[in-house]
Amino acid sequence: MRLMIAGGGGFRVPLVFRALTSGPFAGLVHELVLYDVDPLRLDAIKAVLASMAPSGGERGPAVSTTTSLPDGLDGTDMVFAAIRPGGTAGRTADERVALGLGLLGQETTGAGGLSYALRSVPGMLALAREMKQRCPEAWLVNFTNPAGIVTEALVPVLGKRVIGICDSAGGLVHRAARAAGAALPEGRLDGVGYYGLNHLGWLYRLESGGKDLLPGLLADAQALSGFEEGRLFPQPFLQALGCLPNEYLYYYYDTERAVGAIRAMRQTRGESIHDQQSGLYPALAAAGPRAYDLWDAARRSREEGYLAEARAGGEQRDEEDLAGGGYERVALGVMRALAGATAAGDAGSGGTELILNTPNAGAVPGLPADAVVEVPCVVTPDGAVPLPQERPGDAQLALMQRVKEVERLTVSAAVNGRRGDALRAFALHPLIGSEELAGNLLAGYEAAFPALGLLWRGGA
Fold this sequence. Notes:
The protein has 460 residues and is α/β, with parallel strands linked by helices.
């Protein structure tokens, strides 16, 4: 299989390469093509890969790099996409424009996420259309954030051949299962109930041996304190809610505290990463055999700062989360299932089960059939099929419906060049909720990103 990574100079590439050199994913890919518009980033990541010694004597795939998208796509079977238009400086602007108006400044949630989507969607559409020409049978596994919005924009172009991934939902399920004393087999989600949108979902059932363990977990403050999502929210709140929220719902359930914590920090998350990476890529390119160690130290530092505003008193992230492996496990699990291979836990099951972003098709009652949702899916060589879930509670469904309308307005704005739809999306978002703020936000983002103003055609 020939795998191309769009955004091949990005931070997750060494994790993907590591997984491809040994263990269950070894041998899946014979050629790995890294595509990026920045040759310096490509040189840096290629140096990191060259410094990684495969374990067990196994060899990884042949690696090549290119700054030509057509060359990268020709003959490709699978595309992983993780692009960031505007880079880390763009992320900082996403955060600072919102914070300057007293709003949440976060990469994928709220105003910053909508700004990011308006920049991501056009580039990802260009990639999808090029795929239709160069490798029409290839699959696109989308990492690009905001993953749900971007995937929704791509479905009309690629249909079932695009699948959106994120590791936060699957990570929540496995952490909750461990805390409840259960173990989930690789590639299986039997007894798991989860519904939502990307970065907006809830674990509502966790069965083992025919018994739902979730009520007992929600009643056990000590067990909840053993993993991040359980520590994010007060135990009485979780027990009354009757489910475990995705970590990003912290921004909705405790908005004032989240904004206050971010404003109190010396730097935003984007500024911290920008400073960290400003000299990193040249150093990696020149590091020789030390390139991987240098990269891994930077990766761990970056992971330690993830959702720092939500952790009180200097609390550290769990070591398992810092070790890495979430995104690439999901992406390569999807790739393996699409290729017809199975994990040890899903042999004979007819597919691999993972929480993914894909059109609803009735899986979540109360949302449109064509809306992209984040739910357990079964993946086979024919694609990802969402598994039916219970109807969400009234409050959860109302929030999902409102955010989904925001997402669809954002897609319309980016695809059709409708500034009015962008304004409506900002105004409708529950973390903004104001036409005046929407106008100020969009004007601020247009000033920060001049190309954004060129997106609008006719000003509708």
